[in-house]
Amino acid sequence: RNQDQDDDYETPSILDLKMLRLKERKWLQMLNNWRYYINFKWEKIRNRCRKGIPHSLRSQAWFHLCGAHLQKNRFPNLYEELLRKNVSNDILDDICKDLHRQFPNHEMFADPNGTGQTDLYNVLKAFAAYRPTMGYCQAQAPIAAVFLMHMPAERAFWCLVALSRYYIGGYFEQNLKDIRIHGQMFVTFLKKYSPSSYHLLKRQNIEPEIYMTEWFMCIYSRSLPWPSVLRVWDMFLCEGLTILFKVGLYLVDSTLKNETTKTCPTMFETCQKLRNIPKSLVTENLLINGIKRFELKDLDLLKEHKHQMKKLQKLTKKQQQQQQPK
Amino acid sequence: MSYAYLFKYIIIGDTGVGKSCLLLQFTDKRFQPVHDLTIGVEFGARMITIQNKQIKLQIWDTAGQEAFRSITRSYYRGAAGALLVYDITRRETFNHLTTWLEDARQHSNSSMVIMLIGNKCDLESRREVRREEGEAFAREHGLIFMETSAKTAANVEEAFINTAQEIFDKIQEGVFDINNEANGIKIGPQLSPSNQKSSSGNQALGTGGGCC
User: Fold this and answer.
1) Residue B199 falls within a domain, yes or no?
2) Which GO terms fall under molecular function for this chain's record (chain B) (predicted)?
3) B11 to chain A nearest CA, in Å?
4) Chain B residue set in contact with A, beta carbons under 8 Å
């Protein structure tokens, strides 16, 4: 995987470098005046996130975008305290079993005694101590790992906390209800934006959880070429959930829109297509441009969420009624 | 490639028992000690031969952590075979078998063939679950049983193929309704409806094949 990832980077020209320096200056200026920008110039931040955050400032930018810096300032000693707290052995066992299964080909996480796996253990343990009711859900690990690739453990911890608070907390809950709800929401949007793929999936009874669970839960960190992953995270940390949906719509649409039951006779072939999306479809530029046509707003998500929650309530009520007479 | 039947399998069991490694060993004949943890679902396919018939296995490999069960359940539907895996070096993975089995029985079709697998049998020095215990559990619940090692490939082929053999026998006995795809079996292009008569003529041959 690493070899492939290196191939995705092109050597920058002088002009590229000049542009990069300019970009960096702009980001530094924003970061130095973060409160002003986040309160009054949010659109400027958003547009710059869409253009991609310069590598050198990504760590700082992510830390600020998700609001982790506020929490860290408010509780400056908490991370150290959490590390000293007792966490149940079951949870620690679960965490340990997963440490060598996160980006195993990444240099940072390859060595069981290296800093990558040690930091990952600490971040996940601290999180379990911080939110004892949540404990440890496997989706936390790849997310924490991506943060750790960019920042020290304490900061990565606060970013994970921010994600669980403001972005995708439901993905870490015991029953993963939010994944199922988001799956149903995704289908609604798919019907609107990519009717042909919607019909193919529907005909083969392919539930959204089959293909979108890993995409959404890992914020695409294991499903796209690395440069594209970073761009998705840049946008996601700024704009939130809509990005997960937009990227998903692009992936399904571009992979399946021209497929029929002839090319994908069963669920298996269709799922395989979605699992092995050609790299050429998801390069940085194609992906970023590709998602533009999905004009999803937070409000659309809210409305659809409400709708799906109602549907779910009705369904559970019905199931309960069916069970009672027995 | 054409095939006579297509069987759908699922692999279930606690996290870290080696489900993905079993799948990879069977489909690619290799052991990969480092791999990304399964979140959601992985899958693979391979062609096997049973009584001169080409059979395509489609195998769905699921995430083991408790939280994912609600999602895993949607894969049970339409599976003809299940590999229920535990780790012989971790007693708790054996203790959880009952809940896995309940889940599988509740959400799958009743004729689904379940193979119980004690994996990591290469780690004899760290064994916590005796072979006899696995056999007893299997006997008690009517499962086929085998100990495997995804690392050395011991019994991996057999586990997948014996399950297929059992399904095949059940088809010959008429236990499976092969016209209902919800049972996880599909008739392949080799056995189009016109050829089907000849295949049912082979029934006597089919019933002979026991396993283990």
Assistant:
1) no
2) GTP binding; GTPase activity
3) 15
4) 6, 15-16, 34-37, 39-41, 43, 45, 58, 63, 65-68, 70-71, 74-75, 186
CB atoms within 10 A of CB A315: 10
Decide if B202 is inside a domain: no
Asked if the C-beta of A53 comes within 8 angstroms of chain B's C-beta atoms, the answer is: no
Range with lowest mean pLDDT among A121-130, B137-146, B168-177 = B168-177
Distance from CA of A83 to the nearest CA of B (A): 24
Residue B210: pLDDT over 70: no
pTM above threshold 0.80: yes
Which residue on chain B is closest to A173 by alpha carbon?
B67
Q: In angstroms, how far is CA A256 from the centroid of its own chain? A: 22
The CATH number that applies at residue B167 is 3.40.50.300
Nearest CA in chain B to A219: B39
B182 in any annotated domain: yes
Put simply, whether A83 touches B (Cβ < 8 Å) is no
- Record: contact A214-B70, CB cut-off 8 A: no
Averaged in consecutive runs of 10 residues, what is the pLDDT profile of chain A (326 residues)?
A: 53 87 96 97 97 96 97 96 94 92 91 93 97 90 97 98 92 87 97 97 92 96 96 98 98 95 89 94 96 94 95 88 70
Q: Quick check: is B107 in a domain?
A: yes
SS (H, E, C) A104-169: CCCHHHHCCCCHHHHHHHHHHHHHHHHCCCCCCCCCHHHHHHHHHCCCCHHHHHHHHHHHHHHHCH
Residue of A89, A99, A176 to mutate when probing chain B, most B C-beta within 10 A: A176
Domain membership of residue B172 as a residue range = 5-187
Given this model, what pLDDT does residue A227 score?
Answer: 96
What is the count of residue pairs from A and B with beta carbons less than 8 Å apart?
A: 78
User: What per-residue confidence (pLDDT) applies to B192?
Assistant: 55
Region B97-112: what's the mean pLDDT?
91
| Number of domains present in the structure of chain B | 1
